[in-house]
Prior knowledge:
The complex is a heterodimer.
Chain A: H1 2-24, H2 30-42, H3 44-61, H4 76-80, H5 83-110, H6 126-155
Chain B: H1 3-14, H2 18-40, H3 43-60, H4 69-94, H5 117-128, H6 132-142, H7 148-155, H8 159-179
The complex binds zinc ion.
Zinc ion is lined by residues 13, 16, 39, 43, 45-46 of chain A.
Amino acid sequence: MKTWFKRFYKTECSRTREQLTSYLDGELGAKELQELELHLKSCRTCREEYDSLRQTIGLLRQMPEVSSERTFRIDEKNVTTKPGDRKLLILYRAVAGVAIILALVCIGDFGHLFMPTGESPLGGYPWLVRGIELGLFVILGALGLRILIHLFRRRK
Amino acid sequence: MDDVEESKLIGLSQQGSVDAFNALIECYQKEALKIAFRILGNLSDAEDVCQTAWMSAWKSIKNFRGGSFRAWIFSIVANACRDELRKRKRKRNMETSIPDCPLPSTDVLTDDIVLTREKVEAVQKALLRLPYEQRLAVILRVYVDMNYKEISKVMKCPLGTVRSRLNRGLHRLRDLLRDGECL
Ligand SMILES: [Zn+2]
């Protein structure tokens, strides 16, 4: 009889222990609440347990407030140009620059600036060299201008 | 801010209004920082994490489908904290010089505190020794006064899990604080 009683009380205590936090937080149902309060009245061990948990919460709540001087507002600028975009922007600019320089080189050669004597590998076919250069000038120039226009529009 | 005003601001943010979103930040930043600081134990990390969290909230505000905005944003903050903890863990694996428990930064202490500095440090240290899930549950309960239902929304887990995490967390804290002679 005594051991049965002991065992009953043990499960009662362990159940109470599991519910003490919910009890402290006011999250127990009416029936559980009643049972638990009844047990607390009769069991000193569980009452001590309850007190220690209550003190723990009290200690946590006494911790000093934390505050920050920093602003966390989102900046309109940051939102329109994400960090990833910035790298892409540099790449765009570089490509546009290279394309325009190459286009200028082609047109310069077209006017015999670089090979005044016309001694190019395709010297026998000057019209072919001029044709290729003109084609490259048009393609590269258009590419460079297209990228510049794109960048200019985006800034607006 | 009442619910009507809040849902208006959320709607405007979803349409791309930075000002509306900034009003939401204004409203929840203080609590977000509390959570991050208690999880990480360091103010400047907490500030960085909040910044990251707000930015990712802004990017995904279109995916917010009603319900509690507070729970939604706190869950983003909690995830950002977890990422930060993982980063720390990886770092720690490489350079063993970083101590197990980062000390709480002392610049948050004010003059009118009731606790001694040693006690404040001991409590923060004890919090940092809880497993992440238990720590988060305790912090949401104690520092931003959420009830179990709200915590379950932030942590995306059933009520029973919240109950047991809080219970285990609190018992563990009690034991740690007793060992540190704080109780
Ligand atoms: Zn008992």
